[in-house]
């Protein structure tokens, strides 16, 4: 009897630990005696039957791949897959995708990705049913934005959060030297988890608290999160307050803040949205422009000494945090353990109770995950992770509960 075939695909963009999840899944599937293939560039490789055979790749080479950032198979951001469900069109590439799987006798598909990839997974299942092809889809989470429902956190977030914390600490040291306003924009799409990690920079035990005078409090002085409300005017007033108090202002913004505070015409120009906040917004596309826009506004209203940066893709390319790498490998292995159950689902992480940090993995129905996102949109930071204002803008962003949540993920 021929071995059962499994196809794995890395979807969306990259992540510091995406290859860890891939290696964990491939090694586990091979251990079960399954024949494992990888789709080059995600959905494109599936449509065009452009596959990599993992059989000749040794265990030691897979462990070496696991330690690298990026996506060894390539991502699928540059390939549009038809999710309309209209199978009457002869050029529908979703039908081409499932027809490819049928021709190659592939009945198990493991997708590594975020909420969009999970949703496309459901559409693949529907298309497979349409052509009467039996298919099981296993979704293994991947997103540095940490905006996936049902799971405690997502692989990739811990490494990216550590990068944001370290970069913010460095930027704050620079700001305490050069003074003026420092603006940093982070990735994160519509959720504030990644920007919020900048608060870890305040834990530094360096010399800043002893300097006093112009350097003032350790920054970032304020982190702007999409879970809270701001106006351009309130941001300017915050900067003025910090400049008056400390002679400097270190401000960190989630990339989702731009579309919330700029005028509709600027939103179209920066984020390529045809209607203000109605069409899908390309957050990262506009981050650099939003940073420069804020810089210009600050120069006009606050001080001429302003610096602006957008971290953007560096968040995805950062070295792996140890805990993040271990969990990413583990969730890939766990996902592959469900290959032959005959049930489509998603692997998630559940934090264990107790003072010592640990997690366990759980398998949930894929349709449940997708319906959660359709009903609620991307996951936001819960209210207990947000600070309660005491009347001052200083550190008016995250709560101690968030710091307790995020810190072990960055180890």
3D structure, described in words:
- Helix content is 41%, strand content 16%.
- It is an alpha/beta fold and 411 residues long.
- The chain folds into two domains: 5-145 and 320-376, Rossmann fold; 158-186 and 191-254 and 256-311 and 383-410, 3-Layer(aba) Sandwich (Rossmann fold).
- Strands 3-2-1-4-5-10-11 form a seven-stranded mixed beta sheet, with helices on both faces. Strands 7-8-6-9 form a four-stranded parallel beta sheet, with helices on both faces.
- Helix 5 packs across helix 15 (366-376).
- Give the biggest sheet: 7 strands, mixed
Evaluate the radius of gyration. 23 Å
How do the SSEs run, as a string of H and E? EHEHEHHEHEHEHHEHEHHHEHHEEHH
**Terminal CA distance:** 46 Å
Total domain modules: 2
Strand coverage percent: 15-25%
CATH architecture of the largest domain: 3-Layer(aba) Sandwich
Beta strand count:
11
**Structural class, judged by helices and strands?**
alpha/beta
The number of distinct helices, counting runs of at least 4 residues, comes to 16
* Stretches with pLDDT under 50, minimum 5 residues: 274-279
Question: What's the average pLDDT?
Answer: 91
Shape by Cα distribution: elongated
Strand order of the largest sheet: 3-2-1-4-5-10-11
Q: What is the name of the CATH topology of the largest domain?
A: Rossmann fold
CATH class assignment of the largest domain? Alpha Beta
Percent of residues in helices comes to 40-55%
């Amino acid at each position: 009897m021929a071995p059962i075939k499994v196809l794995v695909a890395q979807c969306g963009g990259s992540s510091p630990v995406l290859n860890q999840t891939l290696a964990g899944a491939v090694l586990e599937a091979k251990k079960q005696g399954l024949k494992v293939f990888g789709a080059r560039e995600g959905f494109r490789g599936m449509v065009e039957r452009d596959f990599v055979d993992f059989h000749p790749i040794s265990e030691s080479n897979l462990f070496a791949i696991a330690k690298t950032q990026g996506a060894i198979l390539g991502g699928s951001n540059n390939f549009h897959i038809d999710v309309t469900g209209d199978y009457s069109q002869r050029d529908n590439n979703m039908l081409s995708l499932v027809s490819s799987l049928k021709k190659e006798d592939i009945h198990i598909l493991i997708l590594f990705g975020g909420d969009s990839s999970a949703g496309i997974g459901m559409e693949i299942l529907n298309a497979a049913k349409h052509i009467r092809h039996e298919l099981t889809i296993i979704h293994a989470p991947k997103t540095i934005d940490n905006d996936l429902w049902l799971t405690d956190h997502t692989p990739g977030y811990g490494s990216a959060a550590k990068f944001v914390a370290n970069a913010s600490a460095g930027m704050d040291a620079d700001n305490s030297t050069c003074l003026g306003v420092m603006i940093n924009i982070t990735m994160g799409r519509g959720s504030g988890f990644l920007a919020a990690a900048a608060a870890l920079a305040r834990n530094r035990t360096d010399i800043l608290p002893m300097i006093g005078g112009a350097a003032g409090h350790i920054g970032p002085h304020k982190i702007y999160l999409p879970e809270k409300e701001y106006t351009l005017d309130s941001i300017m007033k915050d900067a003025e307050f910090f400049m008056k108090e400390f002679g400097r202002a270190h401000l960190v913004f989630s990339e989702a803040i731009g579309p919330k505070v700029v005028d509709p015409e600027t939103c179209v120009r920066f984020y390529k949205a045809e209607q203000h906040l109605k069409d899908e917004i390309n957050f990262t596309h506009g981050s650099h422009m939003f940073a420069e826009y804020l810089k210009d506004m600050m120069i006009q209203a606050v001080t001429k000494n302003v610096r602006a940066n957008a971290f953007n893709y560096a968040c995805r390319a950062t070295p792996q945090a140890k805990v993040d790498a271990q969990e990413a490998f583990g969730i890939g292995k766990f996902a592959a353990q469900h290959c032959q159950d005959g049930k489509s689902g998603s692997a998630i992480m559940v934090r264990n109770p107790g003072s010592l940090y640990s997690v366990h993995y759980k398998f949930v129905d894929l349709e449940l995950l997708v319906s959660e996102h359709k009903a609620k949109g991307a996951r936001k930071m819960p209210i207990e992770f947000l600070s309660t204002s005491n009347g001052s803008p200083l550190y008016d962003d995250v709560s101690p509960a968030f710091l307790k949540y995020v810190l072990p993920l960055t180890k």
